[in-house]
Design brief:
Largest sheet of chain B: 3 strands, antiparallel
Structural class of chain C: alpha/beta
Strand content of chain B: 5-15%
CATH architecture of chain C: 2-Layer Sandwich
CATH class of chain C: Alpha Beta
Helix content of chain B: 40-55%
Number of helices of chain B: 15
CATH superfamily of chain B: Cytochrome-c3 Hydrogenase, chain B
Number of domains of chain C: 1
Shape of chain C: globular
Order of helices and strands of chain B: HEEEHHHHHEEHHHHHEEEHHHH
Strand content of chain C: 15-25%
CATH architecture of chain B: Orthogonal Bundle
Largest sheet of chain C: 6 strands, mixed
Radius of gyration of chain C: 19 Å
Distance between the termini of chain B: 65 Å
Structural class of chain B: mainly alpha
Chains: A mainly alpha (337), B mainly alpha (398), C alpha/beta (203)
Strand order of the largest sheet of chain C: 3-4-5-2-1-8
Largest interface: B-C, 72 and 68 residues
CATH topology of chain C: Beta Polymerase, domain 2
Radius of gyration of chain B: 23 Å
Strand order of the largest sheet of chain B: 1-2-3
Order of helices and strands of chain C: HHEEHEEEEHEHE
Shape of chain B: globular
CATH superfamily of chain C: NADH:ubiquinone oxidoreductase Nqo5 subunit
CATH class of chain B: Mainly Alpha
Helix content of chain C: 10-25%
Oligomer: heterotrimer
Amino acid sequence: MSFWLLLVIKVGVIVGVVVMPLVLGIIFGELKISAHMQSRIGPYFAGGRFGWAQPLADGLKFMQKEDLVPDAADSAVYRLAPYVVLMGTIATFVIIPFGPDLIARDLDLGVFYLLAVSSLGTLGVLMAGWSSGNKYSLIGGLRAAAQLIAYELPMVLAVVAVAIQAGTLSLNGIVEAQATTELFGLNIHLPYVIIGQGLGFAIFTTAVLAELSRIPFDMPIAESELTMGYLTEYSGIRFTMFFLGEYAGMIAFAAIGATLYLGGWWIPGFSADDNLMNFIGPLVLIGKVLLLAFLFIWFRWTWPRLREDQLQTLAWKWLIPLSLFNIVVTAFFKVVF
Amino acid sequence: MTVIDPTVAMHLSEAAVSVELETADMTINIGPQHPSTHGVLRLVARVDGERVHDVNPVIGYMHRGYEKLAEVRTYAQITALVNRIDWVSGFANEVAFISAVEKLMGLEVPDRAKYIRLILTELTRISSHLVFMSSYPLELGATTPLMHALREREHVMDLIEGVTGGRFHPNFNRVGGVKPALGQGASTKKMSQDLPAGFLQATSDAMDQVAGVCDDLDELVTGNEFFQARTVGVGFIPREKALEYGLSGPNLRASGVNFDLRKKGEMVLPYDDFDFDVPIGSNGDCFDRYVVRLQEIRQAMKIVRQAVEKIPAGPLQAKVPRIIKVPSGQAYVRTENPKGEMGYYIVSEGGRIPYRVKIRSASFSNLSILPWILEGALVPDMVAIMGSLDFVLGDVDR
Amino acid sequence: MIEPPSEVTETSFESYAAELGESLGAERVVARHDTVRIYVDSQDWVQTIQSARDNAGLEFFSWLSAIDWSRDVAVGDPVENPEELEERIEVICRLSSVENGDGAHFVSVLDIEKPAIDSLVPVFAGAEWHEREATEMFGISFTGLPNTDHLYLPDSFEGNPLRKSYALLARAVKPWPGDVDVEAMPDASGEQDQNEEQTMGEV
């Protein structure tokens, strides 16, 4: 079997078995959690119990809708954009480790690859905004591009600190490093969010919210200003692609955050070499992903949105200096201890 | 090493950009269908990226010609029209109109009817401001306050419905008083003739609920750093501009003008029997307009609680002829609506229908400041500023 | 509490109206029903209103509109004595104070054929929309109004709907089914005769 075919099968299995059920689960979770935060009941009819089938029903409904392409749109780019967004997200699952051996491809430059492909989604958003032939879409797409410049740098700098502390760019290597880091020579192993990278985790989470265009950084969509931003003209299956892409992106970044800062598939008390981790590892990672996803949902239903210039201020005046400071401190401890 | 002041550096870079890049302005058409225009307002905005150069509001999509229709309706029929002007506070619209008619006829309204009018007006104020409390954070992207505020507003709507039979359009005022309850005319002087049984307790419960949601809003919205970042210092309206454009109500008071028709003015309702404050803003920005409204809910609750305790017994209707004919004359009566000064200039020529009715609605004047205030704003601020003016398109277009 | 109108007219309200009218050089002052009407010549319109704002403390621009006094009435009731009516258009502008309850209506009488008056926009920028409304509804031309586009009506709309001569199309097609309360009143003595307006004197 060729290398590429094998890779496609592995990623296909991950996406089909883990990611898509999780996407549906998180969409359902968001419906229910937001309902409870707003003293509503949320879906309760579809599927018979708790309305569990609501995301499926929504998806089916979307697929029945006409796939409109506006006259003014650049048709080819317009049609391609949703797939670029979805592909950029799915490509990150290539290197996310679900266990010591459960990884599609353990790249030595894993973090590097990750940061590269995760920005592809923004390209898709820019394509969608540019090609829709709609002024709201255009402003939305340009906002997304401006946002990319603002948050990408703090995110990279925050991850650099993790790479320094772990001494590797491989994601599995980072997990193993967390499992073996000793706290002041004691035999205690804890994830990076507790040892050393608490500040980095906060910066990373903020940047991820901006990358995902979720409140408080959902300016590219900004319903009350730009109707629906770059999504204004999309309907039917292409809108579903964006929708899935948004939630798959949430899972991807939650998984990355979990891997880099929360110990990934490893939990304290177990050895990273243990074969057992290949069985419970995926569950541990999914648990951490759900935890982070809950955080993102919680933020969204609590806060208003910021302005684009306020995001830039936040990124350039606060996050970047803080993440540089974080790198200096991390490097200092790395050299001293 | 030379340290460049960041602001100077910014200006330098901007200068360089403006020399090299000739950017064409883009005209965006916001509305008449748009999430933040509250109906059918249309704004033709010329923007350069995120910066709004100028805005031309286009109104009239909901113009129903009430001033013309009023010339072919009897006075009793016009009350049904006027409570559709600002449909979020239907009852309050009726009071000024009916008071103007009573003024022309020289009628003295019974105290109990005045108290009922006052209670319902204040309930309407609470309901209208709760709609603002729900829609304004939504415009800034926060969805949760909407549900909480509207949930408690429903208790207030229930009270209004319990008394008048209508949630939005009570049509409860009659010339000389308010509509007596089923089958009981003005001759019945029993306490229970008009307000539904248990109204006192129901009001007290509803006010507790509203007080609860006001505290929730304080925690969820007022104190929120993101909310403050979006509203503090945004959409500043100085005192002079507010007066020049005829802004009234909370928008005027947020600019530091201590003017409330419940405290000063003709007093068609017995507000001087009650102890309440008029919240005044100091900065005239979006945040102040929000806070003034939130405080006004609390003051309105205070008035309602006092009024249901103090309401006198007595008839609901002054003695009026079966056919209302208004003596000739011209009268203007204004009241403090939730949105601002609501006034009716009625010209009567002695008949059963008015010769001319001029409707002064608050939102029309409040909205007329848009071209001035939006010049040079950012696109997201445009939405924040429009929302903070709290207009209703029915009140603009009439 | 509402004071009975008669009490108000007898006391400070009346003297306030007279003083205000005198200080602004009004032609005529009518104070009745708590409503002060100050008649000014259309030549002095802008100047009087500016002076009311600067000197009389009436700094709040409330509204501006007009009344069409015409014998040619298409819908609605005509005036009481059509023969005696002097056909005219009255422009009304209301200013009020924000320090207390003071307020006054400034009225200027215009020619019904070609009503024209100076624009208030230089004094009160907020007058623009009100004047645009009066322009399309009554056909008054405001000299110096920066924007004369239709405010409410469609751009292609013809006619001035609030003129008394403008027919209400719906009413022409189908008469209003209202007026159910036409039976004779049991007690007609409740009607009061207050038809005469008190004119406060010419200044």
